[in-house]
Amino acid sequence: MTIRRVLSGLGTAATLGAAAAISARRRALAAVPRELRHPVLYLPLNFGNPVTLAIARRLVPMAGAASRPGVRIERRTLPATTDDLPVEVLTYRASGQAPRAALLWIHGGGTVMGAARQENTWCSRVADELGALVVSVDYRLAPENPYPAALDDCFGALRWLHASAAALGIDPARIAVGGESAGGGLAAAVVQRAHDSGVPVRFQLLLYPMLDDRTALRVDPPDSAIYTWTPDSNRFAWTSYLGRPPRDRDDRPYIAAARRRNLDGLPPAWIGVGDLDLFHDEDVDYARRLSEAGVACELRLEPGMYHGADALLDGKAPSMTAFRAAALDALRTALAKP
C-alpha cells in the first residue's frame, strides 16, 4: 500500500468521523430550546488528556466574573488542613450588613480546573441579597493533587467557619454548604463527612452536582451529553481526582457522594439539574435516595437545560434566570432565622 493511499484513507476516515460528530451535534442541538443556544455549544469542548486540560485552564475565564457593588471581597489564608497545607478562600460580605448566616461555596471545573474567583457574580449576589457571609474555597486541583486534597481543603474551610463563628459574627447553626458541578459533588461529600464528624450543616445546595464516578463507566451516554461536559471530560476528571481510573468498587471514604449507602440524618437539600445534563441520572437518583431516607430534598428538573447553562445565560434566558432564582430562594428559606 502506498503512502498516498494510506493518507487518502486517513483523510476519508477523518471526514466520516467529522460528519458523524456534526450529525450527533445537530441531533443534540434540536433538543436545546432556542433561548439556551449559546455560541459555546458549537465548540468541541472536550478535556481528555493533560494537553487539552492545559488549554482549558487557559481558556476558562480566570480573571473573575463581575461582583455586586457594595460587596467586599477578601482573600484569606486559613490554618493548615490535615496535611499541613493552608487553605485559600475568598470571603464575600455585603457592606453595612452584619451577617448571621453563612454559605460555604465550592466552585466547579471537574476538580481539575477553575478557581474561587470565577464565582464572584454568584457569591456576591448571595452575600448582597441574603446578607450572608459567603466563603468560596480555592481548593487544590487534580491531577496534581488527587483525592483527598480537595475534600480536605473544603472540609477544613467548613471547620474554620465553625471555629471562627463568633469572630465572623455568624450563627454556627445557620451554615449551609453548596457548589456547582464538581463543586456540588464535593459539597455533598463534605456534608456527609460533616455529619459523621458531628459538624453541623443547616442545608446543602447542589447545582447539577458531579456525584458518581461510576457514570464514567457508562458505554452508552446520551447524545445530549456532548453539551458542555462530555463523557470523555468526565472520565478524565474522575481519573485525575481518584488517582486511578474509576471502577465498580471503591471503598475509600467520601470518594464520591453517590457511593454512600446510608443517607439517614443528612441535612435538607436542593438539587437542580437539566434533562440534557450528563449528570441528570445520578442527580435524580441521589435526590430520590435522600427522600427515601427521610431527608427533605427539593429536586428541580429543567427541561432543555445542558450542563452549566445557567452560568452562561442567567439574566439572558428566562428559564435560567428562574433556575438561579429558585436556588437562591431555597437557600434564603433554609438560612432564615428559626
Topology:
Layout: H1 3-29, H2 50-59, E1 71-78, E2 87-94, E3 102-106, H3 120-130, E4 133-138, H4 149-163, H5 165-168, E5 175-180, H6 182-197, E6 203-207, H7 231-242, E7 269-274, H8 280-292, E8 297-302, H9 309-313, H10 318-335
Helix pairs in contact: 4-6
Describe, in short, the structure shown.
This protein is of the alpha/beta class and 338 residues long.
Give a written overview of the molecule.
With 338 residues, the protein is an alpha/beta fold. Helix content is 39%, strand content 15%. The protein has helices at residues 3-29, 50-59, 120-130, 149-163, 165-168, 182-197, 231-242, 280-292, 309-313, 318-335; strands at 71-78, 87-94, 102-106, 133-138, 175-180, 203-207, 269-274, 297-302. The protein has an 8-stranded mixed β-sheet, with helices on both faces. Helix 3 links the parallel strand 3 (102-106) and strand 4. InterPro entries: AB_hydrolase_3 (IPR013094), AB_hydrolase_fold (IPR029058), GDXG_lipolytic_enzyme (IPR050300). This is Alpha/beta hydrolase. Keywords: Hydrolase.
Total number of helices: 10
In one word, what is the shape? globular
What quaternary form is this? single chain
Q: Name the average pLDDT.
A: 89
List the helices and strands in order. HHEEEHEHHEHEHEHEHH
List its traits.
338 residues, alpha/beta, 8-stranded mixed sheet, 39% helix
